[in-house]
Write a structure and sequence with these properties.
The complex is a heterodimer. By secondary structure, chain A is an alpha+beta fold. Chain A has one domain. In chain A, strands 1, 2, 3, 4, 5 and 6 form a 6-stranded antiparallel beta sheet that branches. Chain B is α+β, with helices and mostly antiparallel strands. In chain B, helix 7 crosses helix 8, helix 10 packs across helix 11 and helix 14 packs across helix 16. Classes of the chains: A alpha+beta, B alpha+beta.
Chain lengths: 93, 558
């Protein structure tokens, strides 16, 4: 299964994904996907280096699938992290 | 209510500045996450699924309108414009930036608020009956003792690294609205056989993965000794509580392991040595704190019998609100008003910054500028003139804050669940929304009467599912969410833990199952029995059959 590198950004805690250019981005759609173990290892190593240099917290590889053109993490917890709370965000109350 | 003195203010200001330096060192890379995490947690800053979450203490649920306006400002400036009131009478902000947190702490300190010890293995925010000082059945106002215990336990060097977190709850009334039996220590003011007020001390209660109803360690203790007695308990726990296994570290495990009699002996031995030291609360100290809790300037008013009755007859919606949301006050002519944060389909405990400001204005206009947060995630005005009730109701209606459901089936407790919480296994809020909408559409709310439904997204039980008349626990089974129902829980003076009904259900089946349980109750209840009374009379089987079918059908537990 394809993998993507997810973490929380140190400064604001927001969920971020490792992108091709080595930056961390807030949208999973622009995160870098990997399809083989060697590439995944390299990706994780880059994430751990960024954790060490205090850019992100807890980088980890997660499984993702592409459904109707949208990247969806395989595990519900990570899907909620990637796409936000599933509840309606009507904050009038 | 209590106002910080110069000692409190200095301590809180220094703490905010200390955290400013700590977070700067983290952002500069001088300390890593492993080093920083315990520091931020000691200040209530968690890292949840989507962002940092900041938990702000509301000591024993007491909040001024001025403070609520500041919380609204924080929600708007630093978060996404809303906050979430919790079962521990606190408020949480879900989308906080680490870089903003020191400024937030400073802004909180300006209004006598803080986040100290809202996390970590220490004495947490002390909770209390939200009607404290106003309830008709109250023996004595517990808030003075809450405040004394707060001052005693904040940054106490001996108890900053307990085996696990430690929660105290107090009530001064026979009817327990503070769930004291499911806290590490519960303190219940009552009279001894000579009519003297004192505390019953309950120890080792709790929820989580090992739910326990607390045991009475001391039937009655003079209030002036309550701090030394609490210290004796904390010392025994600190010494003998397990530190090798986080799941066995709460005081309830220790009390169960050695038995309440042996635990009592250890505590009494410890207490003998400290009882008559400076921990004894002097009359001067009591009066110093009590001065903050003197009653407001009540007018000399009579109860509004006929006039209110006429308005209730004319306006059924006002009547429904009066029945469920308004309760008696110990002063004639006044009433206690609950503001439900549980409108159908809404998120239990959530409130927007705009609404916070409106509520603050109403508190100024109708309730001496103060309000309470209650552990069922609603707000309470404790000093409303009865002649103002109709006007207040009209204004709450305009704000969509007049839902008449306090204590009814849609007044659901729900933790943030998997939508926010890093510990959760399943979502809680959407289940609460499904059920409250279901009841709103069925029109059975008033007919069903008092019924507590409590939902937790994991076995840590922040949603108090063990003590809900109907409890719902979210579990994850092979990657999918299921919900286990329990029946018969109660958090009041006759506290009980719910019994598991059967295998977990997928989300879509939960509202239907609740409906079948409720319909069963409506069919078999006698006279004015509540759901809990019916359950206690007939047991779980009829409800089990209603949900899962006849007995011989497989009931594999999820």
């Amino acid at each position: 299964m394809a993998k993507i590198l997810i973490a929380n950004r140190l400064t604001d805690g927001l969920v971020v994904f490792y992108a091709v250019d080595g930056n961390w981005v807030e949208s999973i759609a622009t995160g870098q996907m990997t399809f083989d173990d060697a590439a995944a290892d390299r990706l994780l190593a880059a994430g751990l280096a960024d954790e060490h240099s205090n850019r992100v917290i807890d980088p980890r590889l997660i499984d993702v699938t592409k459904t109707a053109g949208k990247l969806i993490p395989a595990v519900l917890r990570e899907a909620i992290r990637a796409h936000g709370p599933t509840i309606a965000v009507d904050r009038t109350l | 209510m209590y106002r910080y003195d110069e000692f409190d203010q200095t301590l809180i200001n220094e703490r905010a500045e200390q955290f400013r330096r700590q977070s700067a060192r983290r952002l500069d890379g001088d300390i890593n996450e492993d080093q920083f995490k315990p520091l931020r947690l000691m200040n209530g800053l968690y890292l949840q699924l989507h962002a940092y979450m900041l938990r702000v203490n509301v000591p024993y649920g007491c909040l001024s309108a001025h403070q609520l306006r500041r919380l609204a400002h924080i929600a708007r400036r630093y978060d996404k414009g809303f906050g979430h009131f919790t079962t521990r009478q606190n408020i949480q902000f879900n989308w906080i930036s680490l870089t903003d947190t020191p400024d937030i702490m400073t802004e909180l300190a300006e209004v006598d608020m803080n986040t100290i010890q809202s996390s970590g293995n220490c004495v947490r925010n002390i909770t209390a009956d939200h009607y404290a000082g106003r309830a008709r059945d109250e023996i004595e106002d517990p808030r003075v003792w809450c405040e004394l215990l707060r001052q005693y336990s904040v940054l106490h060097p001996e108890f900053s690294y307990l085996p696990r977190k430690f929660k105290l709850a107090l009530t001064g009334s026979p009817h327990d609205r503070a769930a004291v039996a499911v806290h590490d220590i519960g303190l219940r003011l009552h009279h001894d056989n000579q009519g003297r007020p004192g505390f019953e001390v309950i120890v080792g209660g709790g929820q989580g993965r090992t739910p326990v109803i607390g045991k009475t360690i001391r039937q009655w203790i003079e209030p002036r000794h309550v701090i030394s007695y609490v210290e004796a308990i904390l010392r025994v726990y600190n010494l003998y509580g397990r530190r090798d296994n986080i799941f066995k570290a709460r005081i309830k495990i220790l009390v169960n392991a050695i038995g309440i009699d042996k635990f009592r002996k250890l505590v009494d031995t410890e207490w003998e040595q400290i009882r008559d030291t400076g921990l004894q609360v002097s009359n001067t100290e009591f009066e110093r704190i009590n001065a903050h809790f003197l009653p407001p300037d009540y007018e000399n008013l009579a109860d509004q019998g006929d006039e209110l009755a006429a308005k209730r007859t004319r306006e059924p919606a006002f009547d429904a609100w009066m029945r469920s949301n308004v309760t008696g006050h110990k002063v004639p002519g006044y009433a206690i008003v609950n503001i439900s944060l549980k409108a159908p389909g809404r998120i239990p405990g959530d409130i927007s910054a705009d609404k916070m400001e409106h509520v603050a204005a109403l508190a100024d206009q109708f309730s001496f500028g103060e309000l309470r947060v209650n552990h069922r995630q609603n707000l309470t005005f404790v000093d409303v003139r009865q002649i103002d009730l109709y006007l207040l109701w009209e204004q709450l209606v305009a704000l969509e804050l007049a839902t008449a459901n306090i204590g009814l089936a849609s007044d659901i407790i729900a933790c943030p669940g998997l939508d926010y919480c890093a510990l959760a296994n399943a979502r809680s809020i959407p289940i609460a929304q499904d059920i409250s909408l279901h009841f709103a559409n069925s029109g059975k709310l008033q007919q069903v009467g008092n019924l507590t439904i409590n939902i937790s997204g994991c076995m840590n039980a922040c949603g108090h599912h063990h003590v809900g008349n109907i409890g719902i626990l979210g579990v994850n089974k092979r990657g999918k969410e299921y919900f286990q129902l329990t029946l018969g829980g109660s958090a009041d003076e006759h506290a009980s833990l719910g019994i598991r009904l059967g295998r977990g259900l997928p989300r879509a089946e939960v509202p239907g199952a609740i409906e079948r349980i409720v319909d069963t109750y409506l069919t078999i209840r006698q006279a004015t029995e509540t759901f809990l009374q019916t359950y206690r009379r007939i047991g779980i089987e009829p409800f089990r059959e209603a949900v899962y079918g006849p007995v011989n059908v497989s009931r594999r537990v999820a």
